[in-house]
Amino acid sequence: MLPLFLTATHRRLLFCAALLGAMPVLAQPTAPTATVASPVQTQALEYVRAHAASLGLSDADLNDLVVTGSYSDAHNGLRHAFLCQQLNGTAVQGTEVGLHFDAAGKLLSRTGSFVGGLRAAVTRLAAPAVTSSAATATALTHLRQPATAAPEPATLVYLRRPTGALAAAWQVQVRPATGPDAWTVLVDAATGRVLKARNRIIRETRKAGAALPASAPASPQRAQGPAVANGYRVFAAPLESPLHGAATVAVSPADAVASPFGWHDTNGAAGPEYTISRGNNAYAFTPTGNHVVTPGFSPDGGTGLEFDFAHNPALSAQANQPAALTNLFYWANLMHDLSLRYGFSEASGNFQATNYSGVAGGGDYIRAQIGENYSEGYFNPTADGVITPFSYPEIVLGIWQMLLPNALTVAGSGPAAGTYAAMPAPVGRALPLGAPLSGTLVLANDGSSTPSSGCRGTWLNAAQVRGNIAVADFDYDCAYVDKLRAAQQAGARALVLLHSQDFLVHLEMDPADTVGLRIPLVMVTRTDGQRLKTAMASGGPLTASLRGAAAPPDRNGGFDNGVVAHEYAHGISTRLTGGPAGAPNCLDNAEQMGEGWSDFFELWMTTRPGDVGTTPRGIGTYVLSQPTSGPGIRPLPYSTNFAANNATYAFIGQTVNGVNYGDDGFGYPYDSHNIGLVWCTVLWDLNWAMIQRYGYDANLSTGTGGNNKTLQLVMDALKLQPCSPGFLDGRDAILAADRATFGGANQALIWQVFARRGMGSNAVQGSSDDLLDNTAGFLIPTGLATTGPQLAGATLDVYPNPTRGQLTLRLSQGTAAGTAPVAVAVQSMLGQTVWTGTVSATAAAAGAVLDLGTVAPGVYLVRARTAAGVLTRRVVVQP
Q1: Nearest-5° Cα angle at 333, 356 to 239
Q2: What is the DSSP letter of 536?
Q3: Contact 97, 114 (CB under 8 A)
Q4: Looking at the domain covering 588-775, what would its CATH class be?
Q5: How many CB atoms lie within 10 A of CB 342?
Q6: Cα separation of 465 and 448, whole Å?
């Protein structure tokens, strides 16, 4: 994973976007470059020639086009081709175009745009006003990296801006000395302004812990349970974790279509090549080394492939590695097999050592690792077939440190009294196991614009802090050790950090920076922190104590099946969006929904028969040591119930209830996770709306239920959406997928679901790389609203529509309507009744005012039931 990148020649052959990913050098191609155009390539090029004028291309421009990938789908007959422009063998970023033809050869959709008169446009550009060295310095400053860092030499690239204009930029690749990150920064060659900063590594947490000690089993361990040939003791689908059910032995679980030679094959012939957790689709192991990872331990099932390793929750995460790696191997292969059934094929860029069909790139099976870091999960995306000893598609899962349940105690009987769970930091003094460390809680005041951050070395309230327990806010204005050192300088006995989220992860600290720290540091959740701050602000002193205890066993990320599915899904979304050669560069724009698709796969894979959409679902509850009903790692749980999850498109780019749903300008993935939450929320609504229409099918691979149909729509839409998509691009791709795969049978339902979450026909996306130019809209296209049975001879008016709380209902009754009271119900597009009331016939005729102030924003149906029948109208409730 060193920052080595593709040469210009390989860029030309293998991908076009090269937007912001630190793409590795292809030292030796894993498959020969095709010399004969496929039928899909030919069809695409013929289309471009025939429509050159409408595409803005001159005859000369046709010589600067390259087809980066093409394939056909068996299940719906669609043909996909991906093109871009190049200049002297180097891709022009932002010129990625997708052409998608139906089974009859008719163009279904076209995404993206070219630059007309490319070479003339380049000639008109002024020479760079910013030097490469100045651009490099700017990039390092933006990433808060030391000036002594050694990035790759800056290269001059060209890109198409959202306005269509061509621009030149310096592309700087930076690999920080610690952690897995691989950054790409684009610096405007004319102004020196940072245009983008994106991390190729898709991380599940903003900060990760230090490397774990090498305490994994040193030698292969054989299974000790009963001999079950080709059996894997795992927490099988749809179990989410050990908290959701017992482990069982899955016997011969490989899909005969997706993995015809089993999970331990690599050569396409009968018989396994490996008896450890390695095969054509995945290799599960504990790593050794740093950055250049060498596989260490893998469980061995012997010649009978008997992987029967028990999970013991009372033991450490390291002691459970054989069982965890077996479980990880099972789930990585399961994701491979199931996604192939839905169209993530060899031709479209899936992850395999050997492509049995002989098409596309091979050698890129998933390297699935456990144990390199604390409290983290991440996916390293690469283009199809692009691998080196230093960069390859990988899932990395950490060991998650558990909280001390009663580490902090607040005395008295006030609103903050009680015990609090906390996570100790691995620096400074350890919490005492005997007599507790006591004092008054004192909030930091460093004199800055954010005084409670405690970043400055000299605190204004040092006299109050001395001999007591300091409290500071968790933020990224400075390092944790700086806060701890400032608290120690102020005379504090300990420091309590108040986290900005309701989950805690291991604190990363450079050992070189912790010299001289002599007081403890612990961290509490946002909810607990707000409770403490509110009580401190009330004026009364809070007496507290800190005490250590034997820590509960850490949890192994290999047992959180939802997290495994989430990380694997990053590989699916990056390979399918913009074509298999474009990964990961077509999902690095500001409004991209990568985390949303991954959360959706996590929820979808772990849905059990009998589940309902209104039940709140948290992400990562197992690794966070939460109950199965816990809130998880996201700011809102997933639920079709607006009372539990009221996320809409209006959240994007905004701060809602203290949560940032926008970009922080630094490219860290917390914001992308919150952006993804909004996208997954609407996908989750769609899944349950489809289940309501078609039912649920427990056969995840070949079922025909609404859940199966939804996943097919999602997979097809990933292929049909443009490179660098926004939310409305994704919506339109799902609508196109429904037309292509299901004949448009679900168009009205899809519009209803998306309009309910602010992605209706009047929504505005703006640039998909700008989070502040979008507008939510809750309308459904005319003619698609579901109105139900109507009362002849009467009309129903509701206004104002859209409304912000008060709605006037006016019923112009026909002679058959009668004079009985009118029952009114307001229902969501998913059939949930959210408001009911009764008005007299006289009031309805005159115009009755309904108070919908308790109804969440969205699209609803107002049903007025009279003695003679029902009238229905659609209404939009705005925030």
Answers
A1: 155
A2: H
A3: yes
A4: mainly alpha
A5: 19
A6: 17
Provide the pLDDT for residue 508: 59
The enclosing H or E element of 156 equals: strand 155-160
The β-bridge partners of 545 are: 409, 438
**Does 9 score more than 50 pLDDT?**
no
pLDDT band at 1 (very low <50, low <70, confident <90, very high): very low
CATH architecture of the domain covering 795-877: Sandwich (2.60)
Of 682, 696, 397, 402, nearest to 562 by C-alpha is: 397
CA–CA separation, 121 vs 64, rounded Å? 13
Burial class (CB in 10 A: 0-12, 13-18, 19+), 270: exposed
% pLDDT > 70, the chain: 86
Q: Are 453 and 472 in contact (CB under 8 A)?
A: yes
Query: CA–CA separation, 760 vs 753, rounded Å?
Result: 9
**Strands 231-234 and 248-251, sheet pairing:** antiparallel
Closest CA to 335 of 365, 298, 304, 374: 365
Cα separation of 679 and 686, whole Å?
11
Q: Say which of 96, 204, 306, 567 is annotated catalytic.
A: 567
Q: To 5 degrees, how large is the angle CA 561–CA 709–CA 589?
A: 65
Q: Is 508 a catalytic residue?
A: no
- pTM: predicted TM-score of the whole model, two decimal places: 0.81
Tokens 């809070």 belong to: 542
CA-to-CA distance for 579 and 406, rounded, in angstroms? 51
Same fold, 404-549 and 795-877: no
Tell me the backbone φ, ψ of residue 618, rounded to 5 degrees.
-100, 155
Distance CA 577, CA 422 (A): 41
Does domain 404-549 fall under CATH 3.50.30.30? My reply is: yes
Position 797 scores a pLDDT of 79
Predicted local confidence at residue 473, as pLDDT: 92
Q: What is the dihedral of CA 135, 136, 140, 143, to 10 degrees?
A: 60
- H helices of 220-378, in order, are 321-341
Length of the chain: 879
Q: What is the 3-state secondary structure (H, E, C) of 320-334?
A: CHHHHHHHHHHHHHH
Tell me what pLDDT residue 252 has: 96
Question: What does CATH list as the number for 34-122?
Answer: 3.10.450.490
Residue 476: the pLDDT is 61
Distances (CA, A) of 186 to 135, 394, 723: 9, 25, 18
Q: pLDDT: is 499 or 218 the higher one? A: 499
The span from the CA of 788 to the CA of 775, in Å, is 30
Show me where the domains of the chain are located: 34-122, 404-549, 588-775, 795-877
Torsion sign (Cα): 449, 453, 454, 455: negative
Using CA atoms, how far residue 558 sits from 20, 284, 368, in Å, is 29, 10, 9
Instruction: Give the whole-angstrom CA distance, residue 654 versus residue 772.
Output: 8
Is the CB of residue 799 less than 8 Å from the CB of residue 816? no
H-helix or E-strand spanning residue 672: helix 669-694
Closest CA to 614 of 585, 575, 640, 632: 640
Residues of the chain with pLDDT > 90, as a percent, come to 60
Q: Quick one: pLDDT at residue 816?
A: 41
d(CA 529, CA 547): 18
Pairing of β 543-546 and β 437-443: antiparallel
* pLDDT tier for residue 53 given thresholds of 50, 70 and 90: very high
DSSP string, 131-150: -HHHHHHHHHHHTT--TT--
Q: Tell me which residue has tokens 């927490």.
A: 235
Give the Cα separation of 301 and 285 in Å (integer). 14
Which residues is 860 bridged to in the sheet?
Answer: 828, 875
* pLDDT at site 477: 66
Quick check: 17 and 186 in contact, CB under 8 A?
Answer: no
